[in-house]
Specification:
Elements (H helix, E strand, L loop, with lengths): L13 H11 L8 E6 L5 E7 L7 E5 L9 H12 L3 E6 L5 E2 L2 E5 L14 H13 L5 E6 L1 H12 L8 E5 L5 H7 L5 H22 L9 H6 L3 H12 L5 H8 L12 E6 L7 H10 L4 E6 L8 E2 L4 E2 H11 L5
Parallel strand pairs: 3-4, 3-7, 7-8, 8-9, 9-10
Antiparallel strand pairs: 1-2, 2-4, 5-6, 11-12
């Protein structure tokens, strides 16, 4: 599908496109009502709701790695949904919810686990809960980066589901191993260093709070980790039942689930995404089902897609517009 995206002239290159939102956008574009939902295993999932007209369509948004409902792209998507007269829900993955009074503070969870790119059971639980509350209200879902991988994997695991009427993903890392390798060189190391700063701390806190995890998590290797593969092999994989990073990536990458998706789904990506080689986008499109629509831009960075002089956030507008077209007026 041909893309209408034209990057802002004053943000050339993938890295400026990627960084702009984090530096310049508000993290309070919408007003939330918070809900703490207890999971079947006795943990907490924090949902942040945005109100709207009764019985109007709802949009569930899934954030990326170490993001939250206060990530600027989550806020932007929800704000675009509100302008359509929709309601919104942002799911905060385990260990990712921010304290509204101090967005730098992440709220701890009650169970000895975190979240990861292939964890779909929490998403399934939230979707079942939302459907049970309002079975007649339309529900769409949008996932960004890691959240896109989770959403697409869940849709592929549940091809006959009738909860999500339409879905969209932005800057999805379809092949986790390829993405991890891509980020091991050049500027990619700078992005990884930022994520590992908080991920290492979370792994250390898990072991301190739950000593039974010490046998699985190699804290010495966690402290030395400088790549996603090193961290995932020492912490993410063994903490969540995988043999290591290779097993985690192989079983969690959404690219192997795309062919089973039957839900109308839009996938937006940029060929200059610094988090993923462009060759993966071609493989993902080739393996996708007929229910999926791919829009791949030449430029845009990772969750960037900043256009115009306003500026405009093309991916957010496109996602909500595409989803809205799938619902009757």
């Amino acid at each position: 599908m041909e893309s209408s995206f034209r990057p802002a002239w004053w943000l050339p290159g993938p890295h400026l496109q990627t960084a702009w939102g984090q530096l310049a956008r508000s993290r309070r574009q919408v007003v939330f009502v918070r809900e703490v939902l207890e999971t079947p295993d006795g943990d907490d999932l924090v949902l942040d709701h945005v109100g709207g007209p009764a019985a109007s369509p709802r949009l569930l948004v899934l954030h990326g790695l170490e993001g939250s409902s206060y990530s600027v792209y989550v806020q932007g998507i929800l704000a675009a949904a509100v302008r359509r007269g929709w309601r919104g829900i942002a799911i905060n993955f385990r260990s990712c919810a921010r304290d509204p009074a101090s967005l730098s503070r992440m709220l701890p969870n009650r169970r000895p686990r975190l979240y990861h790119s292939g964890e779909t059971s929490d998403l399934g639980f939230v979707l079942q809960t939302l459907a049970a509350r309002e079975p007649e209200a339309p529900l769409a879902a949008a996932g960004v980066s890691l959240g896109g991988n989770i959403l697409l994997k869940w849709l592929g695991e549940n091809p006959d589901q009738r909860i999500v009427a339409a879905a969209a993903s932005v800057s999805t890392p379809y092949d986790l191993a390829a993405g991890a390798r891509h980020l091991e060189r050049g500027v990619g190391r700078i992005y990884v260093a930022g994520f590992l700063k908080t991920l290492r701390r979370k792994a250390e806190e898990i072991v301190a709070r739950f000593p039974e995890t010490a046998a699985a998590v190699d804290l010495a290797r966690v402290a030395r980790s400088r790549t996603f593969w090193e961290f995932d092999d020492a912490a993410t994989g063994p903490l969540h039942g995988f043999a290591g990073a290779a097993d985690y990536y192989a079983r969690s990458s959404s690219i192997d689930f795309l062919g089973s998706i039957r839900t109308p789904t839009l996938c937006l990506s940029s060929e200059d995404d610094p988090f993923l080689p462009a060759s993966v986008l071609r493989r993902a499109k080739a393996s996708a089902s007929a229910a999926m629509t791919f829009q791949t831009t030449a430029r845009g960075g990772h969750i960037g897609f900043v256009a115009g002089t306003g500026p405009r956030y093309w991916a957010e507008e496109t996602v909500v517009g595409w989803l809205a077209a799938r619902f009757p007026e």
